Amino acid sequence: MKLFSVQIPELAKCSVLMRERSRVEETIHAMQRAGAGSLQVISDFDMTLTRFAHNGKRVPTTHNILDNRLLIDEDCTKKVNLLNTYYPIEIDACRTAEEKLPLMVEWWTKVHELLIQQRIRKDMLARAVEESSAMLRDGYKLFFDRLTEQQVPLLIFSAGVGDVLEEVIRQNHVFYPNVHIISNYMDFDQTGVLRAFKGQLIHTFNKREGALSHAAGLRELQGRPNVLLLGDSLGDPDHGEEMNVEETRILKVEERKESYINSFDIVCW
Ligand code: TMP
Ligand code: MG
């Protein structure tokens, strides 16, 4: 126990909750013994790799970053800001995933349709990210640098907007070759105007299917049985569930401790 808290002093903080501390310790020791060559990291993006808030203000999600006059008009801004309506549902511990699912599809579909109507231009995305207050979490540089040094694949599974997500990590200088992104990507026409979103819609509660089909195709993940899974939503622990791997689930959350502690091994709040 002492050795453990010396090695990872953060885990001794009172803001860190664990249902079964001794089992988590054993798992981490086993993962350490197996080494970097056995590890893969799967992470959510918005509010997991990015901060939830900064100086009392919410940090924008990848969707929120698109709310910029370079990309959408005032009327669209009014219609597209549905976070306050739907995010409480997404993270509501009292509703089942089955109850939430149709509402999540409704949210994402409405927003993507509104964005397509705006004829967003690809060449304006980088500026919108620059002008936004997007912010990765404290310590992100060390996290990304260490993983790339050790050649540990980092899979970012995000129900956000892939093109914006890429630009956020590019502008933070951490879009390394070990980083793989599975997200909702925009489909632009030949003139660089948004005409659709590519592939099947990814929302918070269907990440599991997306994770499975994409992970199966990634050679980098073969022979890496240990998974560190990071998320902020109760939909997130599903990512690695059927991948037949040992997982340690770490989560950032302000409240709803009880349900989170039943879903994740480590909860940081
Ligand atoms: P994530 O999977 O990387 O966390 O990204 C999904 C988040 O995006 C999810 O928590 C809700 C948020 N979101 C918005 O902020 N605005 C939107 O319009 C939509 C559809 C989702
Ligand atoms: Mg998230």
UniProtKB/TrEMBL annotation:
It is found in: Cytoplasm. Its main location: cytoplasm. Belongs to the pyrimidine 5'-nucleotidase family. NCBIfam families: HAD-SF-IE. It catalyses: N(7)-methyl-GMP + H2O = N(7)-methylguanosine + phosphate; CMP + H2O = cytidine + phosphate; a ribonucleoside 5'-phosphate + H2O = a ribonucleoside + phosphate. Its EC number is 3.1.3.5. It is an enzyme of class 3 (hydrolase). Monomer. Keywords: Cytoplasm, Hydrolase, Magnesium, Metal-binding, Nucleotide metabolism, Nucleotide-binding. GO terms for biological process: nucleotide metabolic process. The lineage of its organism: Eukaryota, Metazoa, Chordata, Craniata, Vertebrata. It comes from Cyclopterus lumpus. This is 5'-nucleotidase. GO terms for molecular function: 5'-nucleotidase activity; magnesium ion binding; nucleotide binding. One of its GO terms (cellular component) is cytoplasm. Pfam families: UMPH-1. Specifically hydrolyzes 7-methylguanosine monophosphate (m(7)GMP) to 7-methylguanosine and inorganic phosphate. The specific activity for m(7)GMP may protect cells against undesired salvage of m(7)GMP and its incorporation into nucleic acids. Also has weak activity for CMP. UMP and purine nucleotides are poor substrates. It comes from the Eukaryota.
